[in-house]
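Reviewer 2 asked us to include a model.

Predict the structure of this chain.
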Amino acid sequence: MADADTGTVVWFKSRKRELLAHIRALEDFSTAYALVSRLVEGTDGQDEVSEQVRGALYMSAVVTYARQFLSSNGKFGEKRIYPIRHLKLDTRFDPKIHSHLVDVRNKLIAHDDGEQLPPALRLLNVSIEQSTEAAKPIVATLRSYSLSSANGQKFLKAMQEHLAACVERARTVMHEGLLDYLVQSNLNPEASNKSVESNEPALQHRFTTSGRTNVTETLFNLDQLNAEIVSIPKGNIHNKAYSYRMLTYSVALPKTDFKVGEHEVTFFMENGLFKPGKAREKGLRMPRLVKRLIAWGNKPF
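Predicted model (structure tokens):
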């Protein structure tokens, strides 16, 4: 059953915030999964460099995953923590691994936790049996511990399965939500336009058809349209030495109708899977997660 405010400006604003959270979470989960998968595959050798690489991979995976479950600022200034209720629907989601990773991030990686790995100062006292004097300290030693890396295929594979569940559930929920958003935007274009809260211009394209019936025409390429939404990082925290991951995910309606002169023209998306009789049209699924590295200050196209 649809919500009472479905298709309204309020609905579009709320759903957009949810969808932005989903795509960010999916990007983090898929990145963490890739990092842990590299650990499962194993790094070459047992030398110090390999230990450093394993540590970097593991700690990057933990931080990237766990930050989704810590309070952060959204695009529109709202505080958010990614919910795990829908992640739990996948049987591979492990609550113990989830809690462990968040704890490791908070207590061993991102913060100096004195309870988990406390530093210490020790004095070595020396005494001489023949002397009547008390023992005297002659050596002072400071000691500190920190997380180095993670080993053990059983643990890493369990973590890999957990992350795979997070990726799949986040993608599924995001896909369903994005399709619903698109359907409602198609049905309620005025409310959708009024819900825009940023200065980002709407993407609009005008096409000219041949007017001939039963003719397939290529009007646009989805990758080319996606290229138009690439934005370059701005602000004083960015550096020309950095590169950035970009993840895009698209859905499309299988068809839409236009009135051309006195005729109704149906515009079909290629390979549309439209089944009449359903409560609403099913959209095309674009399961390919498009990931690119973006050099600072340059578009990747």
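The chain has a mean pLDDT of 79. The CA atoms of residues 212 and 265 lie 10 Å apart. We have added this to the supplementary material.
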